[in-house]
TrEMBL record:
<protein>
    <recommendedName>
        <fullName>DUF4351 domain-containing protein</fullName>
    </recommendedName>
</protein>
Length: 294
């Protein structure tokens, strides 16, 4: 089941697809050529159903497009919290299948929370003679230390990554203070605060709680809502996403076609009881409609 930390990372790209290009811009030496100028970034399907019977599904896909909406570059985003030897076999499939589907250059970007997982994820993958895949890995070392309020307000998603990546940094108090200040004017502050506090280690979480208590009115109520309950809410949210992913996986394994609106309904559902009811039905339902029958 996907963890809260895993889902937090993916949420940032759902909120701001441009973040994929911004992170790649931090490591230009790892690209064969500079990213092309783009006018728009959008999320795309991370499913690769062309390969059967095994299901291949990336964590997220961002497509950078031109004014004519023509795909210029596709970025596959994978969050790798620990080493998984099977990725050496699935990652090349992601790249080649997406490249064939969109007919544009593709990039594999792997986000890792520590040096160990980053080092293992950087290992080149030999696909064939003279054909090697080298994942572009973003570890805490590549994530900028953001202490400038203007930068944080302009890009709250990158600020979230900075707060998580540098939770043990010597300047973490300043980083967290910048994060707390930026949340004052961020429309999605409730979600970001919930996600970050669910991930931060206890010492950093206490620092952030103290900072937020000095910046918001109704301090006691805020602390109770986003700190006392925030971790539990974050875990529940991650659990619901895990159940939704399991349901989609079962339906696909059984060969049932899932319309886009149905997939969206499943992914947006947060009621665990409802998701469990659908999961039970999915085991032997003859059609997708039968799963959602009243």
């Amino acid at each position: 089941m996907p963890s809260v930390q895993h889902e937090t990372m993916i949420d940032l790209f759902r909120q701001r697809p441009e973040l994929a290009a911004e992170l790649l811009a931090l490591v230009p030496d790892r690209l064969d050529s500079p990213l092309p100028e783009y006018t728009h970034a959008r999320m795309d399907s991370g499913d690769f159903p062309d390969i059967t019977p095994t299901e291949y599904r990336a964590d997220a896909v961002v497509v950078l497009t031109s004014e004519a909406s023509t795909p210029d570059t596709a970025v596959i985003i994978e969050v790798q919290l620990r080493h998984d030897k099977d990725k050496a076999w699935s990652w090349p499939v992601y790249l080649t299948t997406l490249r064939a589907r969109l007919r544009c250059p593709t990039v594999l970007m792997v986000l890792c929370p520590d040096k160990t997982s980053a080092a293992k994820s950087r290992t080149p993958i030999t696909i064939a003679p003279r054909c090697t895949l080298e994942p572009i890995v973003i570890s805490p070392e590549e994530v900028p230390v953001i202490t400038d309020p203007a930068t944080a307000s302009a890009n709250p998603e990158l600020m979230v990554l900075s707060a998580i990546a540098h939770s043990r940094h010597p300047d973490r108090a300043t980083i967290l203070d910048t994060f707390a200040t930026s949340m004052l004017t961020t429309p999605d502050r409730a979600m970001y605060l919930e996600l970050v506090t669910a991930i931060l280690p206890k010492a950093a979480r206490n620092i952030l709680e103290t900072l937020m208590n000095t910046k918001y009115e109704y301090k006691t109520e805020f602390a109770r809502t986003y700190f006392s309950e925030g971790e539990a809410q974050g875990e529940a949210r991650g659990e619901a996403r895990g159940e939704a992913n399991a349901l989609l996986r079962i339906l696909r394994k059984r060969g049932l076609r899932i319309p886009e609106d149905v997939a969206a309904r499943i992914e947006s559902e947060t009621d665990l009881d409802q998701l469990n009811t659908w999961l039970d039905r999915a085991i032997d339902a003859d059609t997708v409609d039968a799963v959602f029958a009243d």
